[in-house]
C-alpha cells in the first residue's frame, strides 16, 4: 500500500479527469465530483504525510518499473521529505482552486474540471518523478491543460496571453529536453537516483533557463504580466502558487545536485539574477496599477528570494527555501483568489477604481489583511521564518546578498500595504457599489482553509523547515562540490569523491565511474 | 529454356493479398450493380488490407533470419515485414475514412482498387533487394497514387494536384532510375548486397549515382527541398487518399532509404550520412517555417509531414542500430497521428462541404467533442507532447543523433519543434478558443451525420498514438528485431 501512495497521488486526479470527461452529469455535478476528487486527493496526501518517516533520508513511497530499457528510462517515482511538502502544497492549492471554479460556475464544466484534475496529476508527477524523462513528461504535460485553461476561460486578450506563455515555456522546456537527452546518454541512465554528476556548463544552463522561465526569474519573466492578468483568477493562483514552483523544485532537485561544480561556479550569476528579480519584482509590484499586478510581481520577487536561499548551498538556505516555497504557494493562491473575488464584485482590479471595500465587508477585509500581513513577512509569521532562514543561509555566501534580501522584505511591506490600502481603505472607489457584498460562504470555504494553513505554519514553521532538507535528505550536500574532482581525458571522464562526502549522500551514486 | 526461379509465395503474400483485392475490385466495378457497390467495394478493400496485415505479421513471425528470395530480387526479413504491417494498417484505416467520402458511385470500386494496388506496390517496394525491383515497386505504387490524387474530378484542385504530383513524381523516378543506372554502370551489379560488396574506392560515378538515388527517394518521402509536390497534392487529393499518402508513402520511402543506404553503400557512409543530415535540416527548417503561414489545415499538415520527414531522416543519418529502432518506432505513432488528423479533417470537410481552414475549424472542438479531443491528441503528438508516442519518437531520434555525435541535429530538431508549437497549437486554438459569436454553426445540411466507421478509424489511431507512449518497450523490441535484419 505504502509503495502505491505516490502513484495514487498522481493517478487519482488523472483517472478523475477521465471520469469527468465521460460521466453523463450536468456541469454542476461534474464540479461537485471534481471537488470531491480533489479533497480525496488531499486526504491521500495527509495519509502519506502521516506515514512518512521523516527520520529517514531515503526515497519513500517509491516505485521503480522499467519503461524502456535500452536507454535506461524507468517509471521511477517517490518522495523525499521536501517532495512531500511540494506535493502537499500542490494538492491543497489545487483543491482550493478547483472548488473555487466550481463555486464560480465556470461554463463548459466538463472540459474545465477534467483539465484542472489532469493538471493536478501532472504537477504531482513533476514533484515526485525520479527519472529525468518522466520528469520532463510531467513538466510538459502541465502545459497542455494550462494552455487551454487560459485560452478558453481567460480574459479578452487570452489569445495573446496563450501565445506568449507557450512560446516562453516551450523554448525553455525544449532546451531542457536537449539537455536531458545528452545528460541521460552520457550517464547511461535517466534515473536521478542512480546517475552521477556532470560538469557540463551547457547542460546546466539548459536546465537553469527552463527553470528560470518557469519560476520566473529576471530576465525570463516576459510572459508573466499578460498571462497572469488574462488567466481566470484560480488559474493564475495555480500558475503562481504551484506551477512556478516546478522551476524552483527543478533547481533544488536537478540543477544543483546534478551539476555541483557548475552550480558552484555560476552561483554569482544566479545570485545576481535572483537579487534583480527580488528588487525589480518588488518595484514593479509597487508600481502595479491593479491588485493582480501586485500579486504577480510579488511572486517574481519571492522567486528571487527563494533562489537566493537555494544558491546559498547550505542547510539553512535550503530549509528556508522549501518553507518559503510552501508559504508563497499558499499566500499567492489566497491572494489571487481574493483578487478574483474582488474583481467579481467590481469587474476591475484597478486601484484607481477600487478602495474602501473594508467598510461593511468584514470577512473580505480580514482575509485580505491577514494574508497580506503574512505575505509581507511580519515577525511571527511563517514567511518571516522562511525569509529569516534564507537570509541567514545566504549570509554565508556574502553579507551583500543578505542585505539585498532584507531590502526585499522592506519593499514587500511597501507594495503589500499599498495593495491592502488600495483595495480596503481610503474612499470607496467608483467601481465599488453597495451592491458588492461581503464574501459568500462558498468563497470563505475556499480561502479560509488556505489562510488557516498559513496561520498554523506561523505557529509551527519548524513542521516544514525541520523536516525538509536539514541533515535529513543529504541530496543537497552534493552541492558542496569542492570535494568532488572530475577529470576529463578525451572521451573518458572519471569522477572521484572522497568518502567523507559520499557518506552524506546515501541515495546518490557518486562512486568512481568511467565512460 | 528459361530458368525459372523458385518463388517463396508466402514471403510475398502481403503484396499478393492486396493485388488479389485490387483485381477483385476491378471485377466488382463491372459486375456489381451500383446499389451495393460502395459497400461491397469498401469491404473488399478493407479485407485486402487486413489480409495483408495478417500475412505481414505471419511473415514477420516466421522470418527471424533475413534471406533473399526469388533469385535475390526481394528480401524476406522483419524489416520489410514490419513496414508492411504498418502500410497495411494505414491502408485499412484509410478505407474506414474513405467509406463515406462523397464520390461518384461509378468510380467507387476503382478507387479502392487503386488504393489496394498502391498498398501492394508499397509492400513490394519495401521488400526490394535490387535496383530493378526497387524501381518497379516505386513506379507501381506511384502510378496508382497519381491516379488516386486526381480521381475525384468534382473536387476543385484535384486534377491540378494529380498533374503536379505526376510531373514532379516522374522527375523523382527518373532521377532514381538514372542514379541506379550510374551505380550499375560502375559496379556491374543490381543487388544491394552485391553493390555493397563491390570494393570500390571513391569513384565519382558511384557517388553521383548514390546522390541521385537519395534524391529520388527523397522525392517520395517528401523531404525538402524535394517536397514541392507535397502541399499541392495533399491539399488537392481526396482526404482519405492524403491520409494514406502521408502515412504509407512515408513509411515505404523511409524504410527503403535506410535499407538501401546501409546495405548497398556501407563504404560511402561518410558521404550519405552527411547528405541525409543536411536534407533533414532543410526539411525541418522549410517544413516548419512554411507551415506557419498556411491557413488550409491540409496544407499545414502537409508541411508538418515534410518536417516529420526531417525528423525521421535524422534517425537515418545516425546510421546506427539505435537509429534503426528510432525510425521504426517513430513511424508507428507518426502514421497513426497523420491518419487520425486527416480523418478528423475529412469529417469536418464532409459536414461543411468546403476545404477546412483554421477559420472554419472554429468551435469544432465544442461541437464534436470526441473528434475535437482526438485532433487535439494528434496535433500535440505531432508536436511531441508527452502522453503520445510522438514524444518518445522524437526522444529516440534525438538520442540516436547524439549517440553518433550529431549534437547539432538535436539543436536543429529542438528549434524546429519550438517553431512547430505555433501552428500545432494554432489548430487547437482554432478549435477551442474562438468566441461563440465567432463560431460558424452552420454545417452544410443540418447536423452532421454520425460516421461510425470514421470514428472507429480515429479510435484506432488514438489507441496507437497514446498506447505507443505507454507501451514503449514492446514496440522497441519489435523494432529491434526488425532492425536486426539490417547489416549494422
Q: How are the SSEs ordered, and which strands pair?
A:
The complex is a heterodimer of chains A (515) and B (488).
Chain A: H1 4-22, H2 27-51, E1 60-68, E2 73-79, H3 81-104, H4 109-128, H5 132-141, H6 143-153, H7 158-187, H8 201-214, H9 224-230, H10 233-258, H11 260-265, H12 267-287, H13 291-310, H14 315-346, H15 362-375, H16 382-395, H17 399-424, H18 441-459, H19 462-465, E3 485-489, E4 492-496, H20 499-502
Antiparallel strand pairs in A: 1-2, 3-4
Helix pairs in contact in A: 1-2, 1-4, 2-3, 2-4, 3-4, 3-10, 3-14, 3-18, 4-5, 4-6, 5-7, 6-7, 7-8, 7-9, 8-10, 9-10, 9-13, 10-13, 10-14, 12-13, 12-17, 13-14, 13-16, 13-17, 14-15, 14-16, 14-18, 15-17, 15-18, 16-17, 16-18
Chain B: H1 13-31, H2 34-62, E1 67-69, E2 74-76, H3 78-98, H4 108-125, H5 131-149, H6 158-187, H7 192-197, H8 204-220, H9 229-236, H10 239-264, H11 269-292, H12 297-318, H13 321-352, H14 364-367, H15 369-383, H16 389-403, H17 407-432, H18 452-470, H19 472-483
Antiparallel strand pairs in B: 1-2
Polypeptide structure, described:
The complex is a heterodimer of chains A (515) and B (488). Chain A has 515 residues and is mainly alpha-helical. Chain A is 67% helix and 5% strand. Chain A has a domain at 484-515. In chain A, the strands form two sheets. In chain A, strands 1-2 form a two-stranded antiparallel sheet. In chain A, strands 3-4 form a two-stranded antiparallel ribbon. In chain A, helix 12 (267-287) packs parallel to helix 17 (399-424). The longest helix of chain A is centred in the middle third of the chain and has 32 residues, at 315-346. Chain B has 488 residues and is an all-alpha fold. Chain B has a two-stranded antiparallel sheet with strand order 1-2. The longest helix of chain B has 32 residues, at 321-352. The model of chain B has no long low-confidence stretch (mean pLDDT 91). The chains are: A mainly alpha (515), B mainly alpha (488). The interface between A and B is medium-sized, with 37 and 33 residues.
Amino acid at each position: 500500500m505504502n509503495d502505491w501512495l505516490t502513484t495514487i497521488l498522481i493517478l487519482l486526479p488523472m483517472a478523475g479527469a477521465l471520469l469527468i470527461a465521460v460521466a453523463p452529469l450536468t456541469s454542476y455535478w461534474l464540479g461537485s465530483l471534481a471537488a470531491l476528487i480533489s479533497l480525496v486527493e488531499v486526504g491521500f496526501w495527509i495519509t502519506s504525510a502521516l506515514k512518512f518517516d521523516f527520520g529517514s533520508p531515503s526515497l519513500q513511497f517509491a516505485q521503480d518499473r522499467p519503461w524502456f530499457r535500452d536507454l535506461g528510462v524507468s517509471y521511477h517515482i517517490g518522495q523525499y521529505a521536501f517532495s512531500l511538502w511540494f506535493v502537499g502544497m500542490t494538492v491543497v492549492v489545487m483543491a482550493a482552486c478547483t472548488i473555487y471554479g466550481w463555486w464560480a460556475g465556470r461554463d463548459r464544466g466538463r472540459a474545465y474540471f477534467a483539465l484542472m484534475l489532469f493538471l493536478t496529476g501532472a504537477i504531482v508527477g513533476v514533484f515526485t518523478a525520479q527519472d529525468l524523462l518522466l520528469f520532463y513528461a510531467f513538466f510538459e504535460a502541465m502545459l497542455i491543460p494550462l494552455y487551454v485553461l487560459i485560452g478558453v476561460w481567460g480574459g479578452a486578450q487570452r489569445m495573446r496571453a496563450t501565445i506568449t506563455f507557450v512560446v516562453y515555456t516551450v523554448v525553455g522546456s525544449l532546451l531542457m529536453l536537449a539537455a536531458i537527452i545528452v545528460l541521460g546518454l552520457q550517464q547511461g541512465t535517466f534515473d536521478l537516483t542512480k546517475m552521477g554528476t556532470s560538469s557540463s556548463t551547457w547542460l546546466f544552463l539548459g536546465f537553469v533557463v527552463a527553470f528560470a522561465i518557469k519560476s520566473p526569474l529576471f530576465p525570463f519573466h516576459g510572459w508573466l504580466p499578460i498571462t497572469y492578468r488574462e488567466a481566470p483568477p484560480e488559474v493564475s493562483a495555480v500558475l503562481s502558487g504551484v506551477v512556478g514552483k516546478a522551476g524552483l523544485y527543478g533547481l533544488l532537485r536537478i540543477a544543483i545536485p546534478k551539476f555541483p561544480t557548475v552550480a558552484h561556479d555560476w552561483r554569482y550569476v544566479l545570485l545576481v539574477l535572483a537579487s534583480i528579480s527580488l528588487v525589480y519584482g518588488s518595484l514593479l509590484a509597487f508600481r502595479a496599477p491593479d491588485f493582480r499586478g501586485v500579486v504577480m510581481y510579488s511572486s517574481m520577487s519571492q522567486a528571487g528570494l527563494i533562489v537566493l536561499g537555494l544558491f546559498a548551498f547550505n542547510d539553512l538556505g535550503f530549509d528556508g527555501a522549501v518553507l518559503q516555497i510552501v508559504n508563497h504557494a499558499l499566500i499567492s493562491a489566497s491572494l489571487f483568489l481574493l483578487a478574483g473575488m474582488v474583481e467579481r464584485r467590481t469587474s476591475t482590479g484597478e486601484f484607481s477604481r477600487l478602495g474602501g471595500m473594508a467598510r461593511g465587508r468584514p470577512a473580505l477585509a480580514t482575509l485580505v489583511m491577514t494574508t497580506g500581513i503574512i505575505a509581507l513577512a511580519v515577525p511571527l509569521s511563517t514567511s518571516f521564518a522562511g525569509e529569516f532562514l534564507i537570509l541567514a543561509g545566504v549570509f554565508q555566501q556574502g553579507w551583500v546578498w543578505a542585505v539585498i534580501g532584507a531590502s526585499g522584505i522592506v519593499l514587500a511591506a511597501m507594495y503589500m500595504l499599498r495593495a491592502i490600502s488600495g483595495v480596503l481603505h481610503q474612499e470607496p472607489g467608483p467601481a465599488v457599489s453597495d451592491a458588492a457584498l461581503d464574501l459568500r460562504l462558498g468563497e470563505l470555504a475556499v480561502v479560509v482553509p488556505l489562510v488557516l494553513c498559513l496561520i498554523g505554519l506561523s505557529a509551527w514553521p519548524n513542521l516544514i523547515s525541520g523536516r525538509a532538507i536539514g541533515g535529513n535528505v543529504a541530496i543537497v550536500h552534493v552541492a558542496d562540490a569542492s570535494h568532488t574532482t572530475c577529470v576529463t581525458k578525451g572521451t573518458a571522464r572519471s569522477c572521484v569523491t572522497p568518502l567523507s562526502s559520499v557518506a552524506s549522500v546515501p541515495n546518490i551514486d557518486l562512486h568512481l565511474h568511467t565512460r | 529454356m528459361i530458368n525459372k526461379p523458385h518463388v517463396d509465395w508466402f514471403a510475398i503474400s502481403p503484396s499478393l493479398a492486396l493485388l488479389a483485392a485490387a483485381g477483385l475490385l476491378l471485377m466488382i466495378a463491372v459486375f456489381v450493380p451500383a446499389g451495393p457497390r460502395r459497400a461491397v467495394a469498401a469491404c473488399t478493400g478493407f479485407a485486402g488490407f487486413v489480409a495483408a496485415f495478417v500475412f505481414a505479421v505471419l511473415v514477420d513471425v516466421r522470418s527471424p533470419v533475413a534471406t533473399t528470395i526469388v533469385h535475390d530480387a526481394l528480401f524476406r526479413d522483419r524489416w520489410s515485414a514490419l513496414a508492411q504491417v504498418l502500410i497495411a494498417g494505414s491502408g485499412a484505416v484509410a478505407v474506414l475514412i474513405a467509406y463515406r467520402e462523397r464520390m461518384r458511385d461509378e468510380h467507387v470500386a476503382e478507387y479502392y482498387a487503386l488504393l489496394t494496388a498502391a498498398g501492394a506496390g508499397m509492400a513490394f517496394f519495401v521488400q526490394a533487394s535490387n535496383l530493378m525491383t526497387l524501381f518497379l515497386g516505386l513506379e507501381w505504387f506511384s502510378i496508382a497514387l497519381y491516379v488516386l490524387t486526381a480521381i475525384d474530378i468534382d473536387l476543385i484542385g484535384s486534377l491540378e494536384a494529380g498533374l503536379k504530383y505526376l510531373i514532379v513524381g516522374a522527375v523523382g523516378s527518373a532521377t532514381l532510375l538514372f542514379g541506379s543506372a550510374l551505380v550499375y554502370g560502375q559496379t556491374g551489379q543490381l543487388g544491394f548486397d552485391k553493390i555493397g560488396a563491390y570494393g570500390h574506392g571513391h569513384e565519382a560515378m558511384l557517388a553521383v549515382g548514390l546522390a541521385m538515388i537519395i534524391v529520388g527517394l527523397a522525392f517520395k518521402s517528401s523531404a525538402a527541398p524535394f517536397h514541392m509536390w507535397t502541399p499541392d497534392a495533399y491539399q488537392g487529393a481526396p482526404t482519405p487518399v492524403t491520409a494514406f499518402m502521408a502515412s504509407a508513402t512515408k513509411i515505404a520511402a523511409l524504410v527503403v532509404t535506410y535499407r538501401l543506404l546501409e546495405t548497398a553503400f556501407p563504404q560511402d557512409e561518410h558521404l550519405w550520412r552527411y547528405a541525409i543530415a543536411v536534407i533533414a535540416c532543410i526539411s525541418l527548417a522549410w517544413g516548419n517555417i512554411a507551415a506557419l503561414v498556411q491557413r488550409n489545415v491540409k496544407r499545414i499538415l502537409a508541411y508538418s509531414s515534410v518536417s516529420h520527414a526531417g525528423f525521421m531522416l535524422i534517425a537515418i543519418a545516425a546510421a546506427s542500430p539505435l537509429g534503426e529502432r528510432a525510425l521504426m518506432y517513430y513511424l508507428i505513432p507518426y502514421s497513426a497521428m497523420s491518419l487520425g488528423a486527416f480523418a478528423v479533417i475529412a469529417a469536418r470537410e464532409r459536414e461543411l462541404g468546403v476545404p477546412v481552414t483554421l477559420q472554419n475549424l472554429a468551435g469544432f472542438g465544442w461541437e464534436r467533442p470526441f473528434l475535437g479531443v482526438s485532433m487535439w491528441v494528434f496535433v500535440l503528438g505531432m508536436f511531441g507532447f508527452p502522453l503520445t508516442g510522438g514524444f518518445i519518437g522524437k526522444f529516440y531520434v534525438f538520442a540516436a543523433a547524439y549517440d553518433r555525435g550529431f549534437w547539432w541535429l538535436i539543436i536543429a530538431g529542438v528549434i524546429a519543434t519550438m517553431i512547430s508549437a505555433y501552428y500545432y497549437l494554432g489548430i487547437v486554438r482554432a478549435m477551442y478558443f474562438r468566441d461563440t459569436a465567432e463560431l460558424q454553426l452552420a454545417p452544410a445540411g443540418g447536423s452532421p451525420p454520425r460516421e461510425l466507421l470514421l470514428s472507429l478509424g480515429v479510435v484506432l489511431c488514438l489507441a496507437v498514438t497514446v498506447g505507443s507512449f505507454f507501451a514503449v518497450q514492446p514496440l522497441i523490441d519489435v523494432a529491434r528485431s526488425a532492425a536486426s535484419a539490417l547489416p549494422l
